[in-house]
Amino acid sequence: MTMKTSFAFALAGLALVVLALAPLVLPDYWTGVLLGMTGYVTLATAWALFSGPTRYVSLATVAFFGVGAYTVAVLNEVMPYPLVLLCAAGIGMTMALLVGLSTLRLAGVYFVIFTFGLAELVRQTVSWWEVNVTYTMGRYVFLPFEGRHIYWQLLVLAAVTLLISWAIGRSRIGLALKALGDDETVAAHAGVDVTRIKLLLFVISATIITLVGAIQAPRWTYIEPSIVFNPTVSFMTLIMALLGGAMRLWGPLVGAVPLFLLFEWLSVSFPDHFSIILGLLFILIVFVMPNGVLAKFDDLRKGNRA
Amino acid sequence: MTYSFAEAVGTARRLMTCATAAAVLATAGAPQLWAQDAAPVTIGYAISKSGPNAGGADMTVTPNYELWVEEVNAAGGLRMPDGSQRPIEVIAYDDRSSAEEVVRAVERLATQDEVDFILPPWGTGFNLAVAPLMAKFGYPHLAGAAVTDKASDFVKRWDSSFWFMGGSVDYVAAFTEILVAEREADRINDKIAMISVGDGFGIDLVKAARPSFEAAGFDISYDKTFPPETSDFSTMLSEASNSEADTFVAFSYPPHTFALTKQAKVASYSPPVFYLGVGAGFPVYPGIAGGSVEGVMSLGGIDPDNALNAAYRAKHEEVVGRAPDYWGSVLIYASLQMLAQTIERVGLDKEAVAQELSTGTFSTVLGEETRLENNQLRAINWVGQWQNGQFVAVSAEGGPGTKPVSLPKPAWE
């Protein structure tokens, strides 16, 4: 490990400790903000893990997120919580494998449409199952967690996700991914097992997303499909990762934190105009910095030097 | 993307309402309007102003919050135990129909804005989402727009929670009672055709209805659940018609309720008992259905002889610009009246307020002596029927506050 990386690790570790201690001094509301923010940082980073290098834009985030939350809702009374999380991860992984095996040969806009459909499909399947088989709509999650407990779990997951993202970026897989993102055909000819790598990434990313849903579920007490399969989650994740830059390790984080704070500020200050401002903002991001903030900064720096 | 478009249209439309509300609130916030310079009582709420829940919230909950605040402030403010009056100041957030938003908004109201009281959001799910927080921060939780059979369990779990809309079992039991009386009078046979929307409300009611109907000796000859996106009911209606049931029951949401009425008219399907879900108690229902809806039954209903209720409806129409619905609105408004009277008796101490709500007797639009049983409002009209252009509360024989049910339903005009 070079000096520079050790220093970066020390810094990140320090930031993690500070963040972990924050709920002890902050009022509940700010813990809630940190919780929401950490959730989206994890989602965006996990999303970028697969969609960044491969450039497969996935709108299936909420499909996995919702499955995670539902798993907790169904299992929280029959087994201990750590086991429930393990089950959620297992279910998310299996689902990602099945979906990945059958669809990762799709490319471009077909993949986008498919993933959007997947979220709807999962939601309808869960609804159908609840309506026709279990006869329950709406399940209760009574776990003794307060905001900060959920926040700490999310913080750990966020750190792990960033670590995975970092490790992949340095590994042979990372190199293969870079080739794959630039040109799939060339990568395949150069001996990269394209499908296997895409599948691996997709499964890792989906499992993390499932866990985010599972960890956040106890916060809502009551869960039904329309609550946990809210397509906004997919869109927010996407726009956050794109704003920061999906090709970089810290990109999704850099996008998620300011956007989340901005949304929060908007809903406090302009509760009645939120949707309008949000729409304008999306248009602005796409037009002004299509490659993300970090890339924009690089461009500006280069521009100054030239 | 039709969803976003519809949302944008909805937002534009709501902006108008919000402008009015803002004007109302601006006046409310201006202290020079009051003779006494009392510090305001802050009341906060998070409600779905956008997203899929906005329609329901805007029909049943938000207008009543605004009406109540305006009325109280026009009268000089909330009265305190010492006789002084303090105006209400409102802090309102949009939860954007997201469970995470509503939870955070309540945390914000409790720990950042430090409001004196928090009014509940719309819907069973969202009321449950905020219930643990309301209990944790010690706020009395007057869960208005939440239908649940588990209210007694929830009261045990959160002893400062109050439930104002009853549970599915209650609504179904009252309706079954009417059906049994009708069958004994030989006006209907013992077959029931039942359809339900595959979403929270529909499933909850149908789950209560199946055992209730069967225990009363009815045969559910047609039983079908449809997805919320359904708009064509012609097949279901003809199958229901073929099942030879005299009773047709649909636990539906407003879009289905309206579509079912229109399509039943087209198909000239007019069984003796025609019972629909949410939407049949909306004042706009006869207009949307295109003419007379005489005899159509649903949940809720009002007592047309109750002068207090009539005055409330007139005032609602005057201030909000449209009439309240015939089911939840009046219950929400009554819960606010109870809160105001509680504050007049015990002041702003949250624990004392919860205690008094639990045990006190109040004069509300529902009656001179409204009280809660085990933190639940039970004086609810369970079954309503359109009679002479009004959606009135009915029971088999009629009684205090209810009219006798009038069956069989006349044919469509």
UniProtKB/TrEMBL annotation, chain A:
InterPro entries noted in UniProt: ABC_transp_permease, LivM-like
Membrane topology: Multi-pass membrane protein
Membrane-spanning residues: 30-50, 57-75, 81-101, 108-129, 149-168, 199-217, 223-243, 250-268, 274-295
CDD domains per the UniProt record, alphabetical: TM_PBP1_LivM_like
Keyword hit for Repeat: no
Protein name in the entry: Leucine/isoleucine/valine transporter permease subunit
GO CC terms, sorted: plasma membrane
GO molecular function, one term: branched-chain amino acid transmembrane transporter activity
From TrEMBL, chain B:
Similarity comment: Belongs to the leucine-binding protein family.
GN (gene name): braC_3
Organism the protein comes from: Tritonibacter horizontis
Signal sequence extent: 1-35
Protein name as catalogued: Leucine-, isoleucine-, valine-, threonine-, and alanine-binding protein
Alphabetical keyword list: Amino-acid transport, Signal, Transport
InterPro entries, sorted: BCAA_transport, Leu-bd, Peripla_BP_I
Domain Leucine-binding protein: 40-389
GO annotation, biological process: amino acid transport
PANTHER family xrefs: LEUCINE-SPECIFIC-BINDING PROTEIN, PERIPLASMIC BINDING PROTEIN OF ABC TRANSPORTER FOR NATURAL AMINO ACIDS
